[in-house]
Amino acid sequence: MGNNNKIADLHTHTTASDGNTPPIELVKMARENGLFAVAITDHDTLQGIKDVLNEDNDYGIELIPGVEVSVSFEPIMHVLGLFVDYGNEEFNHILVKTCNKKKRLLAQSFRTLSKNGIEINMTEIKKRKISSLSGLIKYMVELNVISSVDEGKLFFGNIYSEWKSEFPNPEKCFEAIHRAGGVAILAHPLFLGLNKEDLKTLLLQLKRMGLDGIEINHPDQSEEYRNMLRGYAQELCFLTSGGSDYHGKPNHAPLSTPDSDTVVPYEVVEKIKRKIARYKNDIDTIYFIE
Fold it and tell me: For the chain, what are the domain ranges?
């Protein structure tokens, strides 16, 4: 298979976070779907990619260690770390702290609901693998317990404020990803809910903080929106990325295939590798061998 025919999905989730597909099964699906490379990017954990790589099997597909990091920012921001060292102790420590904070604050949220006489089906919570306050708020909107996400933020008040402040800020997130040997990609910029001008202003700020690239191909981003992002990426010299944001859940996009508009050409992966090579060269003159 020539490089022109190679494709990759650089945004997927497994049972290690809030996905429904075990890591090894996802990798097998990716190979069967015709992908040349796949990144496992679970929320705030590297356990999924560890489970696969610790098997020491040749799955016939390039596996890219990744993670989707929760960032302290308003509105909600997620950052993909791609090609991170999944054994990096400092980075793993940050992720474990984040997961523990999420669990504590989510438990506090359930207690707040109970005190206000709001009954939530915990079996359904577990079934849906709701592991974040934003996920809980969206579920409450779905149940018509509250009318909007903004109302949910107000309802949880201090819990929501603490939720946002407990995560690494963008600059700290980028630094941690870089120290773990990876690149930092802004996930699904559409979810920030910003207009064109405000988004560009934010991207300029994030670039100064160390952001390496933006996710363009995402199932929720229209072609018009993607074209806008491509223009920003070219203007700001950003890497580009893309993926299905696969969770294996109803109402979520399926894992990419060669016909999907969520895949990226393998050339994107090679550009990321070259970026990492330059980082390594700047640090200790060790070149990344492709």
Answer: 3-91+168-284, 96-165
Q: Which pLDDT does position 281 carry in this prediction?
A: 66
- How many Cβ atoms from other residues are within 10 Å of residue 227's Cβ? 11
Q: What is the pLDDT of residue 4?
A: 64
Please give the torsion angle defined by the CA atoms of residues 154, 155, 156 and 157, in that order, rounded to the nearest 10 degrees.
Answer: 40
CA-to-CA dists, residue 289 to 8, 166, 173, 281, 286, angstroms: 20, 37, 26, 12, 9
Distances (CA, A) of 228 to 120, 165, 190, 224, 261: 40, 30, 11, 6, 16
Kind of pairing, strands 37-40 and 213-217? Answer: unpaired
Burial of 159-183, coded b for 16+ CB within 10 Å and e otherwise, reads bbeebbebbbebebbbebbbebbbb
> Does the pLDDT of residue 84 top 60, yes or no?
yes
Token readout for 161 is: 């404020």
User: Distance between CA 75 and CA 276 in Å, rounded?
Assistant: 29
pLDDT tens digit sequence for 258-286: 999 999 999 999 999 999 998 776 654 33
What is the model's pTM?
A: 0.91
d(CA 182, CA 81): 6
Q: Tally Cβ neighbours within 10 Å of residue 275.
A: 18
Q: Classify 3-91+168-284 by CATH class.
A: alpha beta
> How high is the pLDDT of residue 217?
98
CA 192 from chain centre, in angstroms, equals 13
Please name the amino acid found at residue 207: K
Confidence of residue 82 (pLDDT cuts 50, 70, 90): very high
Rounded to a whole number, what is the largest CA-CA distance in the chain?
61
CB atoms within 10 A of CB 58: 6
